[in-house]
Write a structure and sequence with these properties.
This protein is of the alpha+beta class and 147 residues long. It has one domain. The longest helix is centred in the last third of the chain and has 17 residues. The chain is globular.
Length: 147
Amino acid sequence: MKKEKIIKELNQLNNNLCINNYIYINSTNIWSIIDVIKKYKTAPSILITPYLINQSGQGVFELYYCEFNIELHEINERIVKKFNVDNNLPEEINAMINPGIVINKNDYEFSIEQITNYLNAMNKINFSEEKKMDDRLESANLYYQIF
């Protein structure tokens, strides 16, 4: 499955945010990625990048350290990536998020399972440290882009 199909389908959903010609997928719409993967029955090679964005679009903060990457290989092995234990990320991020997986493209069910785990974890994290850094992010919501 081409990631362009996923991006196109998710970007067209209502209630996404458009800032400077970039589309940010809201935290409800991102769950539609699971339906798209089920429809095509193929794991996608994608990078999911989360952002904190305030309602006016004036405060955009990329949570690059919370990205989730799916790499495809011809191997029939499942690899779940882990963060380096010596990183300086908040404990809740280290404990709740895996930065990605390496799988075979036919293992789409595992990609759905891991994306579900990732999105559930992202919804539980409050990003209080990030929101304290910039007043514009106090009431920011979670959005995503797919690359």
